[in-house]
Amino acid sequence: MTARFTTLIAASAAMLITAPAHAQNGSSDIGDWSGPYVGGSFGYGWGPNDNAERNERILFDTNGDGQFGDTVSTIGGTDAFAPGFCRGRPNGNSAAGGCKGDRDGRAGWSIHAGFDRQMGSFVVGAVVEAGRKNISNTVTGFSSTPAAYAMTRRLDWDAAARLRAGFALPTNTLIYATGGVAYGKFRNSFATTNGFNTFTQTERKERDWGWVVGGGIEQKVSENFSIGVIYKYTRFNPNDYRVVAGQGTPPSATNPFVITPSGQTVFKRSSERFTTQDVRVTASLRF
After folding, report:
1. Mind listing the pLDDT tens digit for each residue in 225-275?
2. SS3 for 154-179, per residue?
3. pLDDT digits (tens, 9 = 90+) for 179-231
4. Which of 178, 223, 245, 280 would disulfide-bridge 164, Cβ 3.0–4.6 Å?
5. Residue 66 class from Cβ within 10 Å (0-12 exposed, 13-18 middle, 19+ buried)?
6. Which helix (H) or strand (E) holds 12?
7. pLDDT of residue 103
């Protein structure tokens, strides 16, 4: 996380810590949490590079049966992708250069609307939200030609409908857990240093349903205004994007992508999982 976002989150946490003290110095009776609210959030999101992410590769279908995991073989029978795969964008057309790594973190924002109901010290509610994420990740494969093939998946926008439940403290502070359904709009792209074959992309734009869980703390600083910090973990499974490698010009009788039973080779990513984590500062106008 960059220094400016660390500072932002730290400052927000300090505000939440000191707000109850200020409230106690004045009037702490500024109403309960019941009622509707609208607001927005701003913060930092990133895609965790766990083992499943780091070990991702590109899979191939060479016989057109829709099943992936085939080997792309050279005319001599060797694996054309023996140089291997790496996470991120390539540093060149050779596996020796490796990848630049995935810079998954981005600033993001959203707007939200919700409703809470307080019963004693217990608070339940529902909230809908939508906003900008712009988080991406890339996997690259290297062929022995040599050439590099990079497939990138980017989450541009997302939305969610969440339930939340928590406890209201006497200091006008709400501590809660939250979870619900998520909806994401993805944009896929492909880049290669192979200038011979044709490459046709399908389902470059994807939409997918997922789920979100998290928790947060919120502080009422007046009867009609609250601030908070929220953490969310979101999971999607987009898996429709394909790249088809076809015959180039002039036609080749030795090109690994076309000396296949189907006369072409279809690419897909080995992992359909796309996860993000977010830490956001929130502000809400309450009615």
Report:
1. 999 999 999 999 999 999 999 999 889 999 999 999 999 999 999 999 999
2. EEEEEEEEEEEEEEEECCCEEEEEEE
3. 999 999 999 999 999 999 999 999 999 999 999 999 999 999 999 999 999 99
4. 178
5. exposed
6. helix 3-25
7. 64
Q: 219 and 22 in contact (C-beta within 8 Å)?
A: no
For residue 102, the SS3 value is coil
DSSP states of 78-141: SBTTTTEEEEB-BSSSSGGG-B-B----EEEEEEEEEEEEEETTEEEEEEEEEEEEEEEEEEEE
Decide if 37 contacts 281 (C-beta within 8 A): no
**DSSP, res 58:** E
Torsion 52-131-203-213 (CA) sign: positive
| pLDDT tens per residue across span 13-42 | 454 545 454 444 444 568 899 999 999 999
48 prior amide bond cis, ω within 30:
no
Copy the structure tokens of residue 25: 């110095």
Q: How far apart are CA 249 and CA 146, in angstroms?
A: 19
CA distance 140 to 142: 7
Do residues 208 and 275 lie in contact, with contact meaning Cβ atoms separated by under 8 Å? Answer: no
- Give the separation between CA 275 and CA 284, rounded to whole angstroms: 26
CATH number at residue 179: 2.40.160.20
Note down the domain range covering 166.
3-286
